[in-house]
């Protein structure tokens, strides 16, 4: 009996060690994909000079990656059924690593964009596959821990991307924002070959729903292009944006109608009948809107309005990553003792509280406020993604996890794109309106201005003081735009509260 018990303990210990290696492999794979969402943005000015491109042309380096990822995400479930999860994962990691090498060695903008399309198409499978494999690797009562570890790779990537990209670009060259993926990708590939369990293809794989895939690809691709380029092209004043909007509506309409009437659709929308999954889609959409937009807005805020150097900006944004990491570690250890819905509610409340605090900022805001709000946002985001992943998939059959995870992550990606586009649109439009209002008060007949010293030290009647005055008005107007964006982030965070109450109880969900 003692020998049998010892053998069982040894087998359990070996299984735990193997599971830890599987977790590390999946976290690495998720991180290299999510980092590339933001790491290349820092290198764009250097790439623009190297390729002799305009600002509109160089933006395709980011747009191509995002659109390719969005288009390929829904095909994850079908490909996993055809190839098996392990084979698809290895192919995705290998392809992403190889395209990263070629992206760093590209000598023209056309090749760079084409290679970024390949990189985004391969990387799109990594996030949903990692999530599905992680849920299968852990027993149901440890799914909270599994989602905390998975979220660490997904959420930390975009946070550390700009800082890492800035350092590599300054110390080496812009090419290293892609070369850095190679050693990490090789480690993930070796881990996948060694530790991932073999998963055979489905015995009766579904036939490819070509019409549904093309309709969804056109709809989602057009949406991502419209959101990415809308502010730059002045939205619907541009013919390109109008065409993309028409293609988006038509593609998504035909996709929904076809999916509800087809026997084997590329994405089974009947999964929405599961209440937790449907609510999880809405909540992860709000999560995507609220988490990536601040990371896009804060670097120009600190650089343009606060005059911080790039290195200091990286340090000021690092508390967000610290908060994320702390939340993941804490929830991985004590998550099961706390209602998952309370953890999600706490996360959204922290996002709302930090945004409310930021809406009271002015041009004199100090570094401590930036530090603490970043820490709050990081801990809030980390408190949401893991528990939300557990409750979203808790009542779905395991056979549908890969397909469901691909759509869940697609909705998160779309939420991030909409959040960034909305934040930038509000910022630009509000700043423009505010500038017009402020300029109305600039007059030598205004008693206050006539007897007050202007930013340049002169008076309103002195032409030499108008340039410093114009600069100060622009700064004040832009600050008003940032405040309005932060205030709307607060309201959006609070919208999640009623949805959290409708989620099924964690005990029943498990």
List keywords for this structure.
single chain; 510 residues; mainly alpha; 21 helices; 0% strand
Topology:
Elements: H1 2-35, H2 39-51, H3 55-58, H4 60-72, H5 76-83, H6 85-105, H7 109-123, H8 126-137, H9 143-171, H10 176-179, H11 181-195, H12 210-229, H13 239-261, H14 275-305, H15 310-334, H16 340-358, H17 367-393, H18 401-439, H19 447-450, H20 466-502, H21 506-509
Helix pairs in contact: 1-8, 1-9, 1-11, 2-9, 4-7, 4-12, 5-6, 5-18, 6-7, 6-8, 6-11, 8-9, 8-18, 9-15, 9-17, 12-13, 12-18, 14-15, 14-17, 14-18, 14-20, 15-17, 16-17, 16-20, 18-20
What does this structure look like?
This protein is mostly helical and 510 residues long. Helix content is 78%, strand content 0%. It folds into 3 domains: 1-198, Growth Hormone, Chain: A, CATH 1.20.1250.20; 209-265; 270-510, Growth Hormone, Chain: A, CATH 1.20.1250.20. The protein has helices spanning 2-35, 39-51, 55-58, 60-72, 76-83, 85-105, 109-123, 126-137, 143-171, 176-179, 181-195, 210-229, 239-261, 275-305, 310-334, 340-358, 367-393, 401-439, 447-450, 466-502, 506-509.
Mean pLDDT across all amino acids: 79
- Overall outline: globular
Rg, rounded, reads: 24 Å
Q: SSE order in H/E notation?
A: HHHHHHHHHHHHHHHHHHHHH
The tally of strands reads: 0
> Main sheet, how many strands, which sense, barrel?
none
Low-confidence stretches: none
Total helix count?
21
What's the CATH class of the largest domain, please? Mainly Alpha
Head-to-tail CA distance between termini: 33 Å
Number of domains: 3
CATH superfamily of the largest domain: MFS general substrate transporter like domains
CATH architecture assignment of the largest domain: Up-down Bundle
